[in-house]
């Protein structure tokens, strides 16, 4: 329950730490680089119109041509880093795909949610991230078909949700090439289309007085369940057929003479024919690409290229083995 008496101080801080962007992500601890593989918007301003195509992948996010496609495997751990914000609200992640060429996908269409963090243990998702330098981790589903995907990271800011179209949306879309065993995920929903500006989790007239935060769930469907596809495999059994041929008795009579010999022969021939069963086995070839950072041309004791080299609470190296230690925010500097 948010108290009415905290509104003035809270809103003052909210004005200080306001707009935000997704700047970087890691796959199993390896980053492709600062803002690499992300469809970056032209500014850190929010999207306000939930009916606009911008609600999918932010302003100018309808094309990823020229943006890198980063390899990953189903089940991998993804870590994202957003600008630190005091805007109260949830964080969710969605996938769209697989598609033939993710760089040409507009983002508008079918999505399924793979992660959601709302208000838990007295904290909104943004507060959890604020305490961790804007970092947040989650896992890709283990049952995904191989192909290219858009990975959407959404932070919904509720500090102005008391008015229609007051809720702010901060969105970043990453481009992935995922290798997976196959599967299907449901439920799905459409963006734009699933969000409406009068939905009770978008327009909250009593957000600062009377609203019970613990009952809140983010817009869109529930987190999808992804199950293995194709059943348990095909059982193949060799088929053997037996053909039995009986030759009738052959009677031979020698014409009359000194000796009459009668020979009766019963011949049974069993012909075993085995029809070969053609079994085709398809083996999925899984290629795992690991981004390797090569250092050189500097102090051997410094942070690697794209590695962290400073920020509040940072206890690691503050020089760079390659690149220059560049300030990003009060919590993060990076060798680039």
UniProtKB/TrEMBL annotation:
<keyword id="KW-0964">Secreted</keyword>
<dbReference type="Pfam" id="PF00734">
    <property type="entry name" value="CBM_1"/>
</dbReference>
<protein>
    <recommendedName>
        <fullName>AA9 family lytic polysaccharide monooxygenase</fullName>
        <ecNumber>1.14.99.56</ecNumber>
    </recommendedName>
</protein>
<feature type="signal peptide">
    <location>
        <begin position="1"/>
        <end position="18"/>
    </location>
</feature>
<dbReference type="GO" id="GO:0046872">
    <property type="term" value="F:metal ion binding"/>
</dbReference>
<dbReference type="GO" id="GO:0030248">
    <property type="term" value="F:cellulose binding"/>
</dbReference>
<dbReference type="GO" id="GO:0005576">
    <property type="term" value="C:extracellular region"/>
</dbReference>
<keyword id="KW-0624">Polysaccharide degradation</keyword>
<keyword id="KW-0732">Signal</keyword>
<keyword id="KW-0186">Copper</keyword>
<keyword id="KW-0503">Monooxygenase</keyword>
<keyword id="KW-0479">Metal-binding</keyword>
<keyword id="KW-0136">Cellulose degradation</keyword>
<dbReference type="InterPro" id="IPR035971">
    <property type="entry name" value="CBD_sf"/>
</dbReference>
<dbReference type="GO" id="GO:0008810">
    <property type="term" value="F:cellulase activity"/>
</dbReference>
<keyword id="KW-0560">Oxidoreductase</keyword>
<dbReference type="InterPro" id="IPR000254">
    <property type="entry name" value="CBD"/>
</dbReference>
<feature type="domain" description="CBM1">
    <location>
        <begin position="301"/>
        <end position="336"/>
    </location>
</feature>
<dbReference type="Pfam" id="PF03443">
    <property type="entry name" value="AA9"/>
</dbReference>
<comment type="function">
    <text>Lytic polysaccharide monooxygenase (LMPO) that depolymerizes crystalline and amorphous polysaccharides via the oxidation of scissile alpha- or beta-(1-4)-glycosidic bonds, yielding C1 and/or C4 oxidation products. Catalysis by LPMOs requires the reduction of the active-site copper from Cu(II) to Cu(I) by a reducing agent and H(2)O(2) or O(2) as a cosubstrate.</text>
</comment>
<dbReference type="GO" id="GO:0004497">
    <property type="term" value="F:monooxygenase activity"/>
</dbReference>
<dbReference type="InterPro" id="IPR005103">
    <property type="entry name" value="AA9_LPMO"/>
</dbReference>
<dbReference type="InterPro" id="IPR049892">
    <property type="entry name" value="AA9"/>
</dbReference>
<keyword id="KW-1015">Disulfide bond</keyword>
<keyword id="KW-0119">Carbohydrate metabolism</keyword>
<dbReference type="GO" id="GO:0030245">
    <property type="term" value="P:cellulose catabolic process"/>
</dbReference>
<feature type="region of interest" description="Disordered">
    <location>
        <begin position="239"/>
        <end position="275"/>
    </location>
</feature>
